[in-house]
Design goal:
Chain lengths: ~500, ~350, ~130
Amino acid sequence: MIEHLPILIILGPLLGAVFASLTSWYRPKLSFPVVIFGLAISSLSAILIVFKLAFSELDVIHYQLGGWGTPEKDEYGIVGIQISVDYLNGLILATVSTIGLLTAVFSTRSVERELTGQQRYFFSLFSLLVSGLLGISITGDIFNLYVFMEIAALSSYALIAYGKGRSYMASFNYLMMGTMGACLYLLGVGFVFVKTGTLNIENLSQIIPQTLQNSQAVFVGFVLIMIGAWAKMAFFPLHGWLPNAYSYAPTASGALLAPLATKVSVYAMLRIMITVYSIDYVLKSPSIQSTVLLLSTISILVGSFFSITQSNLRKIACYFIISEIGYMVGGAWLANEPGLKGAIYHVVADAAMTSAFFMIIGCIVYRTGQTELKKLDGLFYKMPLTFVALIITMAALIGVPPTCGFFSKFYLIQGAVQAGTWHFVIALLISSLIKAIILFRIIEIGYNKVPNPAKEGNKTITREEAPLSMLIPTLIVTLSLILIGLFTDKLVTNFIAKALPEIPSL
Amino acid sequence: MAELPIWQYDTLFLILVLLFGITALAMQNLMAAAIVFGAYSFLMCLIWTTMGAVDVAFTEAAVGAGVSTVFIFATIYNTGVCAKPKNPRLAFKLFAGLICFVTGAFLLSALSDFPNWGDPYSPVNSTISPYYIENTIRDTHVPNIVTTVLADYRGFDTLLETAVVFIACIAIYSILRVDAAKSKVVEPDIVTSPPAYDPTDSLIIRQASRIMVPFMQIFALYVIAHGHYSPGGGFQGGVILGASIILLCISFDLKYVLRQWTEKKIMILTSLGVLIFATVGLACVIMGGEYLNYEVLDPILPGDKAYARSHAILLVEIGVGITVMFSMIGIYINLASNGRFDRGL
Amino acid sequence: MEEFIDKFNYVLVVILMMTGLWSMLAQNNLIKKCIGMAIFQTGIILFFISIGAKNNALIPILTETANHTYNDPNVNEVTNPLTQILMLTAIVVGVATLGVGLALAQKVHQQNDSFDEDEILNNQTK
C-alpha cells in the first residue's frame, strides 16, 4: 500500500466528497464524518510520504497513473500522467492537508450556526476544494494542473457564495478573475506545448533550459503562466477580487480559502519558475525581474496601507493576505538562495499564520457575532485564550522571534540585501511596522478597555470561549506558529535547502 | 506538394466566427445574443471538423451549441432579456481595449517562432502524439485514438473532468436551490421574458418531442457504447441523454419531468457516475496495479490485457455518461426554475 | 510577409481571444461577461486544435486504407489526438464554469434586479 500513498492524498478528499454527497440524502449527519475520514487519510498519507522522503535516499517519489510513463512500457516515458512528490511539494502537501483537516473540524459548529438548513453540500465542496489544492501541489503534468486549478476554483466559488447577500457579486467577480487567470495559464501551456510537444514537468525541465532558452513562444508562455498564477493569487494589479470574496464568505469557507488557495497558487508559480524554466531563465530577463520586484513592493505597501484603514478584523486579515503575497512573489523573484528559501518557507509559515488568524476570527464571530474592531472591547476578559492566540498570531505576522514570521522575514531581507533590492527591504519593514500598529490597536481595544459589566446588567463579565471543537484547532495552529519557528533550522536544512534548484552565481 | 484548399475554408469560417462572436457581444437584446452565440458555437464545430477534430466538434455541438445556449436562455428567462446601455464607461472600455491590444500584440510577437500551420513535423505533432497513434491498437484494441487517450493514457484528467462536472452541479445546486415552500415565488416578469407556454397550444411541440426523445436516447446510448469505434463517448452521449430530458422539460414542464426524475434521484446519480469511475480505478489498485491501470483487471474482465483495457474504458465511459447526463439535467432545472424546482422554461 | 500569410489563421485566433478577454474586462452586463468568457475559452481551444492540425491528415480514428493499416498506421496521416483530448477537457470545464457563472449572475439579478455592474455596485454601497 505504501507505494500508493501519492494517489491516496488526492483520492481521500475526492472520494470523501463523493460519498458525503451520497450520504447527505440518506443520513445527513454522516456526511461530516465521511469528509473528515477522507481528509484524515489524505493528511496521514502526506505526512507519511514526507517522512519516507526524508529518510530515504530518493530525491523524488513518482507515481505513474494508469501504469503509463515507465520506460519499460513506452519508449518515451511521458505518455501518461505522472504525479510526484519531492522536497518542494512534500512540505506544501503536508501543510495543506493538515490545515484542511483542522479547518474541517473547526468549521462544524460555525457551519451549523451560519448555514442552518442549507449545508447539504457544504462539506462535499469543502473536501473537493482541498483535493483540488492538493492536486495542484502534487501533479507532475502542466495540463493536469489546469484541471485541478478548475476543481479548486469551482468549489471555492460555491463556498464563497454560501455567504448570501453581497457574497454573490463577490463570488462572480472572483469567477471572472479566476477564469481569466486559468485561461491565461492554459494559453501559456499552449505556447509552451507548441515548442516542446510535451506536458510532463520533469521532461519540460530537461528541454526548456537546454534547448529553448531563446524561443519567443516559450517566453510568451512563461509570461502568460505567471500572469495566470498572479490572477489566482491576487498579486498587486489583479488583487481586486480578494477582499470582498474572502470577507463576505461564511467564516468556515474563509478559514479554508484564505490560508490555502493563494498559497497553493504561489507554489504553482514557484514550480513553473524553478522547475520548468529554471532560475537561470528568470535571471536572463532582468527587466521583467525588476518590474515584478517593484510590483511586489507595491503589493506589500498597498496591502499594509489598506489594512490600517479598515475597521473590520476580517477586512484587515484580507489585506494582510495581499501584502503577504507580495512577500512570497518578491522573495521568489529575487532569484537568489536566501530569497527563494524565504519564499518557500513563507508559503508554509503564512499558510499557518493566515489559518490561525481566520480561525480566531471564526471563534470571535461565533461568540460575538461580528468583527468590527471597536466592538471587540474587553475581548481579553471575555475570551482570554482566543485573545492570547490573536496576539501570538499578530506577533508572528509582524515577525517577532521566535515565531515563524521572524525567520521568513529574516531570509527575505537577507535575500533582498544580497540582490540590492532596497525598496523591497523598506517595504518589508514598513509592513511590519503597520502590523505592529494594528497589534497595539487590538491590545488597546481588547485588553485596556475593560468592559463595564454593570452596563449590560450582569454582575461579572461572562467568560465564554468558543466551543472546544473550534478552540482546539485554533490553538493547535497558533502553537504551530511557534513550533515552526523553533524548528526552522531542521525544516530549512532537511527540506527547503534540498528543494532549491541550482542557482547560478552572479 | 499539392495542398488541399482546406486552410482557405478555415480562414473563411474563422472570419465568420469572429463576426458572430463580435455580434453576440454587441447585441443589446440578451436573447438575441444567446442565439448568435449558439450559431457561433455551431460554426466553431465546422472549423474543428475541417481540422479533423471530430470528437471535439461533436462535444462542442452538444455542449457549446446545445446545452450552453439552453443554460443562457434559462437564466434570461428568469431575469429579463434587455441589457440597458446606461453608463458607457468609455474611458474604462478604451483602457481595457488597450490592455487587450497589448496582450494580443504580445501573443503575436511569438508568431515567427511558431511551426507552420498544419506542419506534421512540428514538436507538438512529433514528440509524444505518434506514440498514441502507433500503439493504440496494440495497447487497447480501440481504433478511436481519442477515446483511448481520453479514458486510458490520460484517464486521470478525465476522472477530474467528470469531477468538475459533478462540482458544477452541486455548486449550482447549493447556490440556487431554495426551498420552494419557504421562499415567496417571484413570477418572472411576463413583459421582459418570453410568454409562458400555454400547455394547450403546444400540442405539436409536445407530440414531436415525445416522438423524438426515445430516438435521441437510443442515439446517445449508441454514442456511448460505440465510442471505441466512432466519434463519441461518455461526454457526448451523456450530454445528449441530458438534452433529451431537458427537451421534455421545455416542451412539457418541470413538474412532468420531476415526477419521473426526482431531485433526489438526479443528485444521487450525479455523484454515482464519479463513484463508478473512481471505483474502477480503485479496483486496479486492489488488483495490484497503479491507479487506473486497467491492465491488471484482466482476470475479472473477458479477453487479454488489451481487451481488459478496452472493457474498462467502456465501464469508465458509462460512469462519465451518468454523471454528465444528470449534471446537465440538474444544472438546467436549477437555472430554469431559479432553484425552486416548480416551474420553468 | 509570406510567413504572415502562412500563419494568418493564428492572427484571427488571437483576435478572437482578445475579443473575449475584452468583453470579460469591459462589459457592464454580467451575461455578456459570461458570453465573453465562453468566447475567450473557445478561442484558446481553437488555438490548441490549430497547433495539432496536420495538412492532408485524416481524423484520429484508425481505419484500414491503402497506405495505412491498423497495426502500422501512417503517423502523418492521422491528426494529432493529444491536443483534441486536452480540449475536450477544456470544453467541459468551460461549460461547468459558464453554468456556475450564470447561477451567480441569476442570484445577483434577484437581489439587485439588474445585470448592470455599475448599478449593482451602487446598490451595494448604498
